[in-house]
């Protein structure tokens, strides 16, 4: 597989100029030369084969060759609401969600979640881009605005809404669908009031097994079980 680069500018026409960290990587890590063949994508779908035309001090111009309408998405659209853990665990969670094909990630605040755990939005987007380059995804996972559980639980955005809780039913008993909203609670768990609100709002409550999983493990176990159904 050729090295993949992300263009913040939507791709069309005959060429594109990469700047910022993408150009830095080609110039100073890869020490690329004109003529090197790469793949470039803009996160809006599909990818282009491209060749380095010229190198500047801080930018790289690519000649666009052929567009391939290649997608590596799941058949189901998966939104995941989860309180973001801190530091490396946050990065790891975002990276794995991209790899597993989550389409929308909603940072969740609940009664027991710790505050201000989301890093700056540009940093989260950078994690998404790096993971997409690595795993071959051509559409970027969208990181939504943080939402409180009280708002999210009561809103009927997705027809199918599934909440992870140790007292729930096995995930295999839940109906499947083209679009699902999955939710995972904070380290301290959802409160009884939050669980009641979910049940009143027609969320289905599922167990992920006998052991108590940390936030990121629960999120990835839930997403991967959903993808593999
Ligand atoms: N003591 C908390 C409780 O009982 O809910 C543990 C919280 S756990 C560290 C964080 C979140 O992961 C939970 O709110 C739940 O959404 C999910 N989770 C962890 N283990 C789970 C399991 N075995 N089944 C279902 N959900 C689980």
TrEMBL record:
Q: Subcellular localization, per the record?
A: Cytoplasm
Sequence ranges assigned to domain Ribosomal RNA small subunit methyltransferase E methyltransferase in this UniProt record: 73-225
One matching Pfam family is PUA_4
Which keywords fit this entry according to its UniProt record? Cytoplasm, Methyltransferase, rRNA processing, S-adenosyl-L-methionine, Transferase
Q: Which SUPFAM superfamilies match?
A: alpha/beta knot, PUA domain-like
Output a single Gene Ontology CC term carried by this record. Answer: cytoplasm
Do you know which InterPro entries this protein is assigned to? Alpha/beta_knot_MTases, PUA-like_sf, RsmE, RsmE_MTase_dom, RsmE_PUA-like, tRNA_m1G_MTases_N
* Superkingdom as given in the UniProt entry: Bacteria
Task: List the GO molecular function terms.
Answer: rRNA (uridine-N3-)-methyltransferase activity
NCBIfam families in UniProt: RsmE family RNA methyltransferase
So what does this one do?
Specifically methylates the N3 position of the uracil ring of uridine 1498 (m3U1498) in 16S rRNA. Acts on the fully assembled 30S ribosomal subunit.
What's the protein called, per UniProt? Ribosomal RNA small subunit methyltransferase E
**Species for this entry:** Bythopirellula goksoeyrii
């Amino acid at each position: 597989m050729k090295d993949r680069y992300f263009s913040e500018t939507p791709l069309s026409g005959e060429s594109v100029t990469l700047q910022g960290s993408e150009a830095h990587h080609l110039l100073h890590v890869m020490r690329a030369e004109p003529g090197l063949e790469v793949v470039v994508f803009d996160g809006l779908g599909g990818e282009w084969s491209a060749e380095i035309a010229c190198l500047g001090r801080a930018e790289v111009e690519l000649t666009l060759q052929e567009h391939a309408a290649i997608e590596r998405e799941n058949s189901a659209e998966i939104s995941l609401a989860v309180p973001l853990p801190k530091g490396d665990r946050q990065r790891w969670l975002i990276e794995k969600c991209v790899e597993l094909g989550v389409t929308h990630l909603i940072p969740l605040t609940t009664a027991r979640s710790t505050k201000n755990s989301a890093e700056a939005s540009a940093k989260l987007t950078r994690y998404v881009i790096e993971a997409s380059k690595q795993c071959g995804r051509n559409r970027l996972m969208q990181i939504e605005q943080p939402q409180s559980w009280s708002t999210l639980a009561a809103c009927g955005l997705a027809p199918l809404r599934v909440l992870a809780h140790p007292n729930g039913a096995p995930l295999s008993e839940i109906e499947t669908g083209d679009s699902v909203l999955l939710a995972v609670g904070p380290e301290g768990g959802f409160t009884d009031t939050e669980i009641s609100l979910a049940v009143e709002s027609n969320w289905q409550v599922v167990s992920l097994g006998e052991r108590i999983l940390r936030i990121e493990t629960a999120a990835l176990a839930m997403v991967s079980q959903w993808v593999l159904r």
